[in-house]
Design goal:
Strand order of the largest sheet: 3-2-1-9-10-11
Number of strands: 11
Helix content: 25-40%
Shape: globular
Structural class: alpha/beta
Order of helices and strands: HEHHHHHHHEHEEEEEEHEHEEH
Radius of gyration: 20 Å
Low-confidence stretches: 285-289
Mean pLDDT: 95
Distance between the termini: 25 Å
Length: 289
């Protein structure tokens, strides 16, 4: 039996022994759903060639300064992302995580640094999802004029993808009429309205305390460059399964690292749990290539 197979068996043991599942997810979780990987400027520029031609890095565009300097460029980038996330279907691994949590006494909760709303779309309990960097599906005033946010549901951006510029009207704050922006923690962002994320974190933190010493974290696609999800699982959960094709190493001997992509690892784990009778058949799992 190979090293990865042994690690999968050990991970299945941890899942069977857990009372609650804490899912911690970074950008790699969405790659198997077809979402772009912004790792390094090359990955960002492949997804947004117009910004590559201009030599703009992700850190420069994903900043409140981009909205101040050129709001149509800022909204060209975020408007395109909003439309992309709305039409993206979560890959089948999300359903596997839900299935695992449903077999545990305390169920599952989510901590994610992603802003895409994929866990809500996949049917996870919205009261147990913490989005530490906010959500693209909420808006706030760019000033901000108040500590308030509102849904982005009515926003239908029209984007010139060739130039990455918003063609439709700029969204405005309903209170002051000033420019609106996504309720996302950007780079160098003292104006982010954190109240919704703070409330989410309190609820998920209280749930973690309730589960106690048999809380298992499954971390997916969370790198060390922005380690929010890695740190949360390490500090909150008694045991951790780290799923990451590039950075799977774990520190604690009781934890397990799997050098696999999210969908592939969850497919393999599900098969082991089916064989053991922990899960029941029913999900049509077909990992995307």
């Amino acid at each position: 039996m190979g090293e990865v197979a042994r690690a999968l068996d050990r991970a299945a043991d941890l899942i069977e022994q857990a009372d609650g599942l804490l899912v911690t997810a970074g950008a790699g979780m969405g790659v198997d759903s077809g979402l772009p990987d912004f790792r390094g400027p090359e990955g960002f520029w492949r997804a947004y060639p117009a910004l590559g031609r201009a030599g703009l890095r992700f850190e420069e565009v994903a900043s409140p300064r981009s909205f101040a300097a050129d709001p149509r460029l800022g909204w060209g980038f975020y408007g395109h992302r909003l439309l992309l996330y709305r039409r993206t279907e979560p890959h089948p691994g999300f359903a596997v995580l839900r299935e695992m949590g449903e077999r545990m006494p305390h169920g599952a909760a989510v901590f994610t640094s992603n802003v895409d709303g994929q866990f809500q779309r996949a049917g996870f309990d919205v009261s147990r999802i913490a989005e530490c960097h906010g959500s693209i599906h909420r808006l706030q005033c760019a000033s901000p004029c108040a500590d308030a946010v509102w849904p982005a549901d009515e926003l239908q951006p029209e984007v010139d993808e060739e130039r990455c510029l918003l063609r439709s009207a700029l969204p405005a704050c309903p209170r002051c009429g000033h420019l609106a922006r996504p309720n996302i923690l950007m780079f160098g962002d003292p104006g982010w309205v954190s109240a919704p994320a703070d409330a989410q974190l309190r609820r998920v933190g209280a749930w973690c305390e309730q589960v106690g010493r048999r809380l298992l974290a499954i971390e997916l696609g969370a790198g060390t460059a922005i380690p929010s999800a890695r740190r949360y699982g390490e500090t909150r959960a008694a045991t951790l399964i780290r799923i990451n094709p590039r950075e799977p190493a774990v520190v604690r001997p009781r934890d397990v690292g799997l050098p696999l992509a999210a969908a592939a690892a969850l497919s393999a784990l599900r098969q082991r749990l089916l064989d053991r009778g922990f899960l029941a058949s029913g999900i049509n799992f077909a990992a995307r290539s």
